[in-house]
Amino acid sequence: MAQQVSVNEFVLELVDGKPQLVGGKCRSCGNHTFPISAGCPKCAGTEIDKAILGNNGTLWAWTVQGFPPKSPPYLGNNNPSEFKPFGVGYVELPEVIVEARLTESEPAKLKEGMPMALTLEPLFKDEDGNQVVTFAFEPTN
Q1: 40 vs 31, 54, 126, 136, CA distance in Å?
Q2: Is 25 exposed, middle or buried (0-12, 13-18, 19+ CB in 10 A)?
Q3: Rounded CA gap, 123 and 21, in Å?
Q4: pTM of the prediction?
Q5: Count of domains in the chain?
Q6: Full domain range(s) for residue 41
């Protein structure tokens, strides 16, 4: 039976069909990173634990991806005739600022400081018919 699957379980886990971003937390200083890394950029500590990040944040800055990105490293439908522009932005979560897709691609509908919520964005279907998804943030007001 086809289902939703994460494009990369290293950064995105699906729990009961809901997205969870996976980051890291330094044991020495408490600094968070996304994605998880082997070392802490703040204190150079090397004891990093997996940390599930918050699902709600605030939009800092954004732009619109108006042409198909190169593949690899980006996955999805890169056929120029089927490409749909998408928003890209920096969202401040309680733990860390992440760069992410946005569900809104109309710049006039995006504002600095607007509340955002984590959601899933379909990318493509894999060879087993599963819907491969990535994470995105959507405006909540």
Answers
A1: 7, 19, 35, 25
A2: buried
A3: 17
A4: 0.88
A5: 1
A6: 4-139
